[in-house]
Amino acid sequence: LSRRRFWKDGLSQDKAAAFQTLHHCLLTVAQLMAPLAPFYAEVLYSDLLGLGSSRAASPSKSASPFKAEPGSWPCSVHLSRMPQPAINLISVDLERRMEWTQAVCSLALSLRKKAGIRVRQPLSRLGLILPAGFTEESLSSMLDLIRSEVNIKSVVWAGGDSFRIQRKVRPNFRRLGPKYPTVIQQMGPALQAISSEQVEEFLNKGFLELELDGVHCRLETEDLEVLTQDIEGWQVASEGAITVALDTALTPDLEREGLARELVNRVQKQRKDMGLDLTDRIVLHWETLPEMMAVVEEFGAYIAGEVLADRLQPLAHTRETAIQVDLEGLILQIDVEKVEK
């Protein structure tokens, strides 16, 4: 998620903030790990602060831009003070939103795996139920993370005309039988009759209260199993109070974008195999299969930007350095040519 921030041209405020955050985190890790891995922690600390004598004498192009001011840091990580938590910087609300985001992504990715759809293949929609204690506005900043992590185009909230999730509860008779033996037979039909809204209230509160033949029943989370009803065209999964639904329908547009992402992946692997630097520019030669012509026409700029290609050149004839790649069943010849500076 951060790669684009680090790869931006120039030194924008966003890029500087990304590097500063990474630098702060690595420096803290070096201090925390010093008692357990003293030698590596010392190397990491010195590299981050530019304290190594050899580096200071002849700084390389990869030397840290965050040089320590004289006297601002001890000369060794083992002379620095152990970092202390900054209580004033802890945001419980942010932690709750991030915990929800992680759970949503985990469920959505499990649905992709269940459906046999690779993560590089974009999908159109992910349906979510608004969790208790949050508003759509408070979670809006999390949706970009979800879209990027799960590779979907849009997030829709349950309740709209195009997306509704129905949930029911089923009693755990092994637990409830000993607790309410006189009304256990009536409990099943009574629970079948409760609405989806009442199920949501149960999930948010952690308990459900019923009156059966004059017996007051308080049902806890362990007493009931929550069932999510299938939605036509969607894959649905739940974990506790969190339910997600993934629209797994593939359109021709989504399939073309998926091929573009697969091509980027294969080109990046070839760049690595060739030993190219991250900043090396290339010319990408590609076989003009009918399927790929539509992909390059629509996503050529995206492909070129991702693989640092000056141009995408149709493969007019067989090249000795060309390789075959498998794009999820589509066999394609490509050739990666380094642009000499």
Task: Estimate the mean pLDDT confidence.
Answer: 87
Q: Rg from C-alpha positions?
A: 28 Å
What percentage of amino acids are in beta strands? 15-25%
Q: How many β-strands, per DSSP?
A: 12
Tell me about the largest β-sheet: 4 strands, mixed
H/I helix tally = 11
Give the H and E element order. Answer: HHHHHEHEEHHHEEEEEHEHEEE
> In which range does the helix fraction lie?
40-55%
Which consecutive residue ranges, at least 5 long each, have pLDDT under 50?
53-64
Class from helix and strand fractions = alpha+beta
If strands are numbered along the chain, what order do they take across the biggest sheet? 2-1-8-7
The rough form would be described as flat
Distance between the termini: 30 Å
Description of the structure:
With 341 residues, the chain is an alpha+beta fold. Helix content is 44%, strand content 21%. It has eleven helices and twelve strands. It has helices at 3-7, 13-33, 38-49, 53-57, 92-115, 136-150, 173-179, 184-192, 196-205, 252-274, 290-307, and strands at 123-128, 152-157, 167-171, 207-212, 215-220, 224-228, 234-239, 242-247, 282-286, 309-314, 323-327, 330-338. The strands form four sheets. A four-stranded mixed sheet has the order 2-1-8-7, covered by helices on one side. A four-stranded mixed sheet has the order 10-9-12-11, with helices on one face. A hairpin with a 2-residue loop joins β4 (207-212) and β5 (215-220). The chain is flat, with a radius of gyration of 28 Å. The two termini are 30 Å apart. 20% of the residues are buried.
